[in-house]
Amino acid sequence: MALSPGTKLGHYEILAPLGAGGMGEVYRARDPHLGRDVAIKVLPASFSRDPDRLRRFEQEARAAAALNHPNILAVYQMGTHEGAHYLVSELLEGSTLRDHLLRGPVPVRKAVDFAIQTAHGLAAAHDQGIVHRDLKPENLFVTKDGRLKILDFGLAKLIVVPHTSDPGTLTLTERTEPGVILGTVGYMSPEQVRGQATDDRTDLFALGAILYEMLTGRRAFLKPTSPETMSAILNEEPPSITEVVRAIPPALQKVVQRCLEKSPAQRFHSASDLAFALEALSDSDSAAMPGLPAVKSRTGLMWSVLVPVAAAVVLIGMWFTRASAIPVVESVVQLTDDGQPKAGLLETDGARIYFTEGPSGSFRIRQVSVHGGETGDIPSTLVNARLAGLTADGATLLAVIGSPIPTQASLWLLPLPVGHARKLGDTEVTDASLFPDGRILYAAGSAVFLAEKDASNPKKLEGISRHALAPKVSPDGKQLVFVATNANSQWAIYEAEADGTGVHQILSKGPGLPTNACCPRWTQDGKRLLFTGQDQGRWDLWILSDHMPFFRQGPNPIRLTNGPISYGSFVGSRDGRQIFAIGAQRRGELVRYSLEAREFVPYLGGISAYDPTFSRDGKWVAYLSYPEHTVWRCRAGGNDRLQLTYPPVAAQFPRMSPDGSRVAFSTDDGIAFVVNINGGTPQKLVGNAEGFSSAPDWSPDGNELALTYEVPSTPSGGGYFEARIFDLRSGTLSTVPDSRDKIGPWFITPQTLIATSDGQSKLALFDFRTKKWTDLTSSPDKFVNWEVSPDLKYLLYQTGGNHPKIFRMRLSDRAAEEVASLNNFRGVGDPYQGSTQLGVAPDNSPLLTRDIGTEEIYEILVSWP
């Protein structure tokens, strides 16, 4: 149906027609609620009566709404109007890539840039299990500022259609049966032409055809008829690019040829691989772009996850053509393959690498050879031990042991290769590190102390106020380095003398630098400073070097890695040639523990979601996308999905209001927000400047929020946690009496809170009428997670230790039962919230996020200038 200006679709007002788009007419419209113009695609009423076309339209909506990436068209909502279906998306200003191609070939640099952006968008879709299957210049839009957007996921399908535990649970899309040919002739892969099953490599073939056309101005496969074109795709090679355009670098032609391989197995194995190869070429001299060397391997350790890593070594060729003052990554090799989550520090003595492994609450210290191989335990009776340091002689490990949320941990020395662990004093710390001479640097609250080898005679370093983590010590023991927030509320890297004096900033957030930074530490020779930087949810390694001419005069750090692996903790080898780092490709699967079947089964189609929360009536659910940490909501059946927050906000601990109208959440910088489930701008409530707020929970009447509140340190003492109540009606914040070191308060009645105490070894109840705390239950294995069921009838909690378990307690009589063992459950090791959060489904069964990604230790071989 044709819509006239002024027509209303829901609350949207039609402004003007924009023409046809995909399977419908597109209009410019106004969203008065958010004060912005949007695009609305309307499916004609005749199409709505066609089940297949309607299914494909709805499929496009769900596929696109599942994605959030700057190179993918953002879809806001799907609705119906007078029997016609419509889709609301962001409004783009610019033209399609087809419009650009009508003017002839695209300049090489611009063509490569467009291909890189497309590959990044495809990688985001493929990471969510979604293949486009109809990529072509008409479906690529170039905005006025040069941003490329992928349009029309109308033929998209899930790579793997998840099994559902409930016949009423919806998946994002339906399966397209083998033998059915869908796509656009000329950009279809051979497997599409044959009607065979497709995966993400189908999109890489199409992108290769598009890049060929951008570079040459000609289609790779173009014959007089569609059958002849299909035959060419199956049996012929397109003319060499250099036969058409002589100025194309040979290495770029090889990239295109690899995309256009007839066999999917011979193409790039992922869009991330392709993007990385193109980025390396784009940074090279266009007159002499190098080839693509192969990554070296180690027998028995190279498996399928290494294929994306192999793409990283294209940096060799790129850096061979650049100034010798820039370090070169020569190879990336996977060293471990045990499939276990890893966290925290890495250390090496030159022969072994030491690290922390396991879920939060059940950490253990492990080791592996620097040459890779089997991983093994460090013999110890310590429970939930985290690695904190290694003495200079390599004879002893420093470990910290405490609650899953590291507010109260003790210091221990653990001899190598075997020996009895020894506790160091009675000091409670949050983290620690070692000086070369064995002295201990540790953080307590947000203050930093320097103590002797046995942790005696601590001296507070007055010049350093550090949140959570202790600074790192230089190899010569003369300097400290750490990350903190500067006066502009941006991350900054600071140096200081070993006694805490002379604190000065050496780097801060700015153009060309990551949005977040962490964990700076020196290489073994002390000449270079490494740190991790985060962009779009991925962490890469960066370097500062005093041998670079610009260091100390406004340093310009260099990015050492550029995906697709996200690198966390790292340590330089003793000889200085390698960097050992924990690398992750994160993906989760939301699962429910079936009380009847006594096993975990996919929930909401097994989406990569985290920390779900439900309305009181069980009709609505909100959750975090994983690993992006954006808030989404949908109905309990999985339909009517809507994204509520967007990057750079990294949301944590979402909680649905009892009436299902709002979602409260906190952010990684300690601010509590609330957002309407129909979207809009989140409203800031409390936190950050006045203190660190997290994990808001609604009172049963929806008028108050209980918060875990971290009181910042003062000159007279360190910081600590306490429970506070935020009144949404008055905007006031009050402290729950006697709640120091109480963590994770939950309402179970309007007059009762539950929280952990005594280093998370107890669960305690607070009665607002008596203003008293009473113990509910205790566990020597500590409480890792706990949550009240949506109907407020049950408390579910998870314990840690060597044998983690889930328990369920009926609150009416406090009767508790063990529900499930987590000995063999691999929960996600989330960068923001630690272990996977325990959820409770409307039927009172436990919900967790199972880790189906990879997290292993890698060797990054570097050629230093």
Q: Give me the CATH architecture of the largest domain, please.
A: 6 Propeller
Name of the level-1 CATH class of the largest domain: Mainly Beta
Strand line-up of the largest beta sheet: 1-2-3-4-6-5
Report the mean per-residue pLDDT as an integer. Answer: 82
- CATH topology value of the largest domain: Neuraminidase
- Specify the biggest β-sheet: 6 strands, antiparallel
Tell me the total number of β-strands.
Answer: 61
N- and C-termini, Cα separation: 66 Å
CATH level-4 homologous superfamily of the largest domain: TolB, C-terminal domain
* Helix/sheet category: mainly beta
* Tally of DSSP helical segments: 12
Features:
865 residues; mainly beta; Phosphorylase Kinase, domain 1; Neuraminidase; 4 domains; six-stranded antiparallel beta sheet; globular
Describe this protein's structure:
- The protein has 865 residues and is mostly beta strands.
- It has 4 domains: 8-90, Phosphorylase Kinase, domain 1, CATH 3.30.200.20; 95-292, Transferase(Phosphotransferase), domain 1 (Orthogonal Bundle), CATH 1.10.510; 315-586 and 855-863, Neuraminidase (6 Propeller), CATH 2.120.10.30; 599-853, TolB, C-terminal domain (Neuraminidase).
- The protein contains 12 helices and 61 strands.
- Strands 1-2-3-4-6-5 form a 6-stranded antiparallel sheet, with helices on one face. Strands 12-61-34-33 form a 4-stranded antiparallel sheet.
- A hairpin with a 6-residue loop joins β27 (491-497) and β28 (504-508).
- The longest helix has 20 residues, at 108-127.
- It is globular and about 85 Å long.
- The protein starts with 7 loop residues before the first strand and ends with a strand.
